[in-house]
Amino acid sequence: MSPTRFASEHRWIYVGAIVVLVGMLITGILVYTQQHHNIQANKKAQELSGQLEAAGYRVPDQDQIVSTLGTSGGAVCASPGSVLKNALWLQNISNGAAGPGQRPVIGDRRAIEVEALILGVYCPDELVKYQDKLEEIKTSDTVKN
Amino acid sequence: MSSMDLPADGRGGPAAEVRTRAARAVSAPRLSWLTLALMTTSSVASLRAAPTMAVYGLACVFLYIVPAIVFLLPTALVSAELASGWDGGVYNWVSQGLSKPLGFLAVWCQFAMTIFYYPSLLAYVASTIAYVVNPALASSGLYTAIVIIVLYWTGVWVSARGTGAVAGLASWGLVIGTLIPGALLVVLGGVFLGQGNASAAPMNASHILPAWTGLASLVLIVNNFLSYSGMEMNAVHVSSLKDPPREFPKSMFLAMGLVLLIFILPALAISWVVPADQLSLTAGVMQAFDAFFQYFDVGWLTPVIAVGLVAASLGGMLTWLAGPSKGLLLISRQEGYLPPFLQRLNSHGVQQNILVTQGVVTTAIALMYAFIPNVSSAYWIFSVITTQVYLIVYLLMFVAAIRLRRLQPEHPRGYRAPLLVTLCVTGLVASAAAMVIGFVPSSQFGGGSVWAYVLIVAGGLLVLGVIIPFCCLRFRKPSWRTVDAADPAAGGAA
User: Fold this and answer.
1) Shortest alpha-carbon distance between residue B471 and chain A (Å)
2) Measured on CA atoms in the order B410, B413, B418, B423, is the torsion positive or negative?
3) CA B63 from centroid of its chain's CA atoms
4) Which end of chain B is more exposed for a tag (fewer CB within 10 A), N or C?
5) Considering Cα of B162, then B165, then B171, then B174, what sign does the dihedral take?
6) Are B373 and B183 in contact, with CB atoms under 8 Å apart?
7) Over the stretch B289-317, which tens digit does the pLDDT of each residue have?
8) What is the pLDDT of residues A52-63, one digit of tens each?
9) Where are the domains of chain A?
10) Which domain, by its residues, includes B408?
11) Which pLDDT tens digit goes with each residue over B220-243?
């Protein structure tokens, strides 16, 4: 069967899928919150950079930190201790599969611990819950520095 | 859902006529080898794993290449040979090479593990949408449940329209959700290095190999074998190709190349631009993409890639809905392993009732995931159990391939894998190693008892991979057989 006939047989499914995806795209672009550069955001980015450096981490570009985390920490600080976010967090400590082969591994200590620094600067109220989570999981040094 | 149910045992009259049409719809050539390659790639690879593996920097190449040699290559070449000689996919290969009950076990394991896969996949899709719309939504059980259920049942409806609908959406999902965004990441990564910036992750010889910390590193390397699981799954559609013996191997080789490129290059590109330590896991993989695009001042691309990831994930889900359930149907119709109700086809020749029954179970699991904290917190354990169950498929497939070379050496095959026995033994050892490593407690289990972990995983494996299929075999009835195994429309013996 030719691709053309394929397409005509399922035209409405394809049209529906395109409409939904384009709708999501437009909505996403309109409501996506770009973090703003302001004095407070720069100050927090500097604070985070200092803490990362002191803890021996590589320090990202300042603008990159400001644009991603802004003043509020962005998505990182959006209820990081909630049950469903915790479930996703646990599932993300996994191997390199993108399909049903996804399976938990023993995560890298530093990659997991660094989040405490981010939370400490941007949403310190959430830090305790995160530290509690850290105590419950087992890590190792699987990333070469 | 399609309007007409077809009794699989219809005798004469209009029902028989429609049944014949449905059988023709199943077996008629409908897919090009390129479409099948894209479907296979969509089943296995997406950008979802790129930030996770970018953490390992240059070592991610090693972490993908080694499993490719010991698991991807054997799986792809062996299934290319088997599909070029026998229709029907893994159930028929194992049925022919070992026995029909083991053929049922193989396709059951392939099918059963997907039930637990869909809620976690769709929860990830829900969190990806939430990231760009309103990150707080990702914490809402109601929002997550609605997204999972709506998307899952839409997927069931599309799958019930036939392989053609699935093939088109999965292929386009891969193109717009993985190939184009993946190419964009690689180009931007190249621009970053081309501007004279130093890579965020060291790219020197001492970082080719991952850190060695004993058991944790072994767990990481061996578990990565499973990154390639699913390469054989779409072989169930082999009879939809015009010239299966020649086209399926071509399709498999292209898929193999695409999967490797999709896994390795975007992960490397992210590791060049975003320091591993900034790849936050709490906010999910979108955080890494966001940080990546923010460097180039194109943050507006974050929602674009989010939509792409959603499209690719849903396309991949469609292939998983359509594949294993079809294999389960084909062997059950021949051998009567499932009651006639589950063997019914709709007017598109699709196993509608299997999909709906699976949907009911998946919906129940998804609701528990969304609303019961103990279930969502412990959901990661299901991915351990289901991957263990899936490995049974590979163990059976490799043994069956060796036996088929010995038992049926003259059976026409469009492609003969070189060094088949070596490939099978390699794949067999890799699968067995992954199964053994599956019993090593992961990060999520914390400091709990190793034996408790082993018992949980072994118990799950026993229930899902042994007891349930055994019950199906034990309680089957000869009267449940609805087609002759020799009937080519049944996708039987080739």
Assistant:
1) 25
2) negative
3) 19
4) N
5) negative
6) no
7) 888 888 888 888 999 999 999 999 999 99
8) 889 888 888 888
9) 1-32, 35-136
10) 32-490
11) 999 999 999 999 988 888 888 888
Dist. CA A21–CA B7, nearest whole Å: 37
Residue B412 lies in a domain: yes
b (16+ CB within 10 A) / e for B139-162: bbbebbbebbbebbbbbbebbbbb
Transcribe B135-163 into DSSP letters. GGGGG-HHHHHHHHHHHHHHHHHHHTT-H
Secondary structure class of A140 (helix, strand, coil): strand
With CB atoms and an 8 Å threshold, state whether A88 touches B138: yes
B127 within some domain = yes
Cβ-based contacts of B35 with chain A (< 8 Å): 3
- Number of compact structural domains in chain B: 1
- CA B348 – CA A89 distance, rounded (Å): 40
Average pLDDT over residues A99-103: 93
- Taking contacts as CB-CB distances below 8 angstroms, the residues of chain B near A61 are 295
Instruction: Please give the C-alpha separations between residue B197 and each of A49, B192, B325, in angstroms, as whole numbers.
Output: 19, 6, 49
In A, minimum Cα distance to B111 occurs at A100
The DSSP code sequence of A55-110 is TTPPPPPHHHHHHHHTTTTGGGGSSTTSHHHHHHHHHHSB-S-SSTT--B---BHH
Token pair belonging to B304:
């674009």
Q: Is B293 exposed, middle or buried (0-12, 13-18, 19+ CB in 10 A)?
A: buried
CATH code for the domain of B63: 1.20.1740.10
Q: How confident is the model at residue B131 (pLDDT cuts 50, 70, 90)?
A: confident
Of B117, B211, B369, the CB nearest to A144: B211
Return d(Cα B238, Cα B36) in angstroms, integer.
9
Chain A: residue nearest B384 by CA? A103
Task: Say whether B215 sits in a helix, a strand or coil.
Answer: helix
In one letter, which amino acid is B256? M
CB A104 to CB B443 under 8 A?
yes
End-to-end Cα, chain B, rounded Å: 30
Q: Looking at the domain assignment, is residue B12 inside a domain?
A: no
Alpha carbons B112 and B385: distance in angstroms, whole number: 11
B51 belongs to a structural domain = yes
Q: Do A92 and B59 touch (CB under 8 A)?
A: no
> Which amino acid, B188?
L
Contact B73, B425 (CB under 8 A): no
Measured in degrees and rounded to the nearest 5, phi and psi for residue B393 equal -60, -45
The residue of chain A nearest to residue B273, with distances taken between CA atoms, is: A60
**SS3 call for B380:** helix
The question of ipTM being above 0.85 is answered as yes
